[in-house]
UniProtKB/TrEMBL annotation:
Belongs to the ERGIC family. It is a multi-pass membrane protein. Keywords: Membrane, Transmembrane, Transmembrane helix. The keyword Cell membrane does not apply. It is found in: Membrane. This is ER-derived vesicles protein erv46.
Length: 440
């Protein structure tokens, strides 16, 4: 069999049969349908291209298998009516670990009554008074200040009022009468404290806590342990109403959870320097903190603010293979009035509630952040359609539009044929000619 004969037998499989140009009828209606089909193909192609380039995020929930035992907490809170010397930062968790009066990686800024930062370089702070007192005592090489029966530091001496106060805290004693202590009188400790009573404080920094249920709280006075109970020394705290007393009204500028190295790049930078440094990890991922920008202002000093936080580990997988880990949380706020309990009434007085309220746990003025780490993790993965998926959709668009256009043109032809009652090519030509005339 000749090759030409063999190929000739395959012509019956040709699915793309063609007609001669003489048998084709070209009309303005067909041209209009062709133009509309072309425009539709271009629009759908562009839409499919944008869909191909768009990155979508697929979230899923899974068990958190991370073994990192620590979590970082970054905060920035302003207290307009609590002086810095009175403010104590503590972290307590369910396993019994306690961080008391944290000062490492924490910055306290003294504020005046207008909320402006005081120039500490021009002020004689408590630390400056203590330094002056030590310089005066250096003339006596054998000087060793008394700790007044409290637990002395390793050197055995309490040479400053602050060291005496720390010794009292270690002994779980209340530092109620500083004027009876020689070091405090020489440093004018009481006078300096009274001068600061109308100041506010901005406290910001970062602490590391165990990855378990716990709480971070900002409260008045030094904290100490007494009979396995976390206790605060509230002697310097001025209670009452109005601006003449201390109260824990506050503004939360930032409160965020992160991994141990998440905030390292932003540590020690000012707000302007952070803006130049670039967006943080949470800003890149579009995660906002629930407490950011929250404020509270009580009318009385005996208020306890509690925030209950549900912290969820979050992992983000980018298309380039980069993995980012952070935390996000939800918050529920609760304000508690600490008016003394009246046993005769069975509830606090005055009482604005409709029913009986019994308080089984005493409270302390301050702001408490109670957090709980979820055992579940949210994993968000960036995805995008494959290139071949894009190509197959383009073929579907092109074939579908052309097929639909052909069906419309054929319906117009067959409709004329049924209405006109003839199948002659002359009548068809007249129909298309009249339709073209109306279109023109």
């Amino acid at each position: 069999m000749q090759p030409g004969q063999w190929l000739g037998q395959l012509r019956g499989l040709d699915a793309f049969g063609r007609t001669s140009d003489d048998a084709r009828i070209r009309t303005n209606v067909g041209a209009l349908i062709t133009l509309l089909s072309g425009c539709l193909v271009v629009i759908l192609t562009l839409s499919e291209f944008f869909e191909y380039r768009r990155v979508s995020v697929e979230p899923r929930l899974e068990i958190d298998l991370a073994r990192d035992p620590k979590i970082a907490i970054r905060f920035n809170v302003t207290f307009p009516r609590v002086p810095c010397y009175l403010l104590s930062l503590d972290v307590v968790d369910i396993v019994g670990d306690m961080q008391v009066d944290i000062n490492h990686d924490v910055v306290k800024l003294r504020l005046d009554s207008q909320g402006k930062v005081l120039d500490n370089a021009g002020d004689r702070s408590l630390k400056g008074e203590a330094q002056r007192y030590l310089e005066q005592q250096r003339g006596d090489p054998n000087y060793c200040g008394s700790c007044y029966g409290a637990d002395a530091p390793p050197g055995g001496c309490c040479n400053t009022c602050e060291e005496v106060r720390d010794a009292y805290i270690r002994s779980s004693w209340s530092f109620s009468n500083p004027d009876s202590i020689q070091q405090c009188r020489d440093e004018h400790w009481t006078e300096r404290i009274r001068a600061m009573n109308h100041e506010g404080c901005n406290i910001a920094g970062e602490v590391h806590a165990n990855r378990v249920v716990g709480n971070l709280h900002l409260s008045p006075g030094r904290a100490f342990q007494r009979n396995s109970v976390h206790t605060h020394d509230l002697v310097p705290y001025l209670q009452g109403q109005g601006d003449e007393y201390h109260h824990f009204g506050h503004v939360i500028h930032e409160f965020s959870f992160g991994t141990m190295n998440e905030f390292r790049a932003m540590r020690g930078l000012t707000k302007a320097q952070r803006a130049l440094k670039g967006r943080s990890r949470k800003q890149e991922l579009g995660i906002s903190d629930a407490l950011e920008g929250r404020s509270a202002h009580p009318e009385q000093s005996q208020f306890m603010y509690q925030y209950f936080l549900k912290v969820v580990p979050t992992e983000y997988h980018r298309l380039n293979g980069q993995q980012l880990q952070t935390f996000q949380y939800s918050a529920t706020a609760y304000e508690r009035d600490l008016i003394p309990y009246d046993p005769k009434l069975g509830h606090a007085s005055p009482d604005d509630s409709d029913g009986q309220v019994v308080r089984t746990v005493e409270g302390v003025p301050g702001v408490f952040f109670n957090y709980e780490i979820s055992p579940m993790r949210v994993t968000q993965t960036e995805t995008r359609p494959s290139f071949w998926h894009f190509v197959s959709n383009l073929c579907a668009i092109l074939g579908g539009v052309l097929t639909l256009a052909g069906l419309i043109d054929r319906l117009i032809y067959r409709g004329q044929k049924q209405l006109g009652g003839t199948s002659s090519f002359d009548d068809t030509d007249n129909f298309y000619h009249n339709l073209d005339t109306k279109l023109l």
